[in-house]
Amino acid sequence: MALAAVDINCDMGEGFGQWRLAEADDTALMELISSANIATGFHAGDPSLMDATVRLAAQHGVGIGAHPGYRDLQGFGRRRIEGAAEEIVNDIVYQTGALREFARRHGASLQHVKPHGALYMELAANEDLSRSFVHAMQATAPNAFIYCMDVSLTHRVAVEAGQPVIREFYADRDYGRSGSIVFTRHTGRLDPAAIADKVVRACREQRVRTVEGDDIDIAFDSICFHSDTPGSLAIARAMRAALVAEGIKIMPASELANPSKAITRG
């Protein structure tokens, strides 16, 4: 069944001091998305950038999410780091709490938590770590959505525990037969029109073509793309225009869960 409404989420605030990774300005991207995953200082981000990005999201009515990663500025959080589950989860709690306070400062609330990069992929495949993460969320942010893939262990554990979840579809990443994305540290420049077609098909049919050439089912509530993908602004514009043309409403996760209170971002 075709989706009537969908969230668009993007990783934001990914810089440090004077350094910025994304070629697109966060302000331009913020006008096109409905939820922002805001870097929390370990893989990217710093207090002043977190504050500015949260303020920008609040001004645009964009759902605010913490985007905690491994403590890996040099590798941008895309390198797996070994550690005890308790240590890794404590890092997530620390980062999430910092972002939540910036949200409170600007009269907003924490909509979601989405782990970043290699940490996201490790949680997806590591049941013990996912359980520790979900238990920490239930103690510290029980109403916040966890963003994850439908096929991930994170999703299964969160559903079993009663933690709200949002399932993601990756616009700018390839899929394998398992239904998971093919992890990469570097993405070349993609064709915005092809990405828009991929997204519209997924919304219409809940299907996606894999790198092996198969079509597989995909279940999702939110479409993700990355601000550091080359040409991200053109991708965002093409996706949004295609979704609007199809009559698919765009709204933050909090409004997807409460459609009677939704304000469509046309």
From TrEMBL:
Protein name per its UniProtKB record: Lactam utilization protein LamB
Source organism: Labrys okinawensis
GO biological process entries: carbohydrate metabolic process
Source taxon at top rank: Bacteria
Family matches, as Gene3D superfamilies: Glycoside hydrolase/deacetylase
PANTHER family found in the cross-reference section: 5-OXOPROLINASE SUBUNIT A, UNCHARACTERIZED PROTEIN YBGL-RELATED
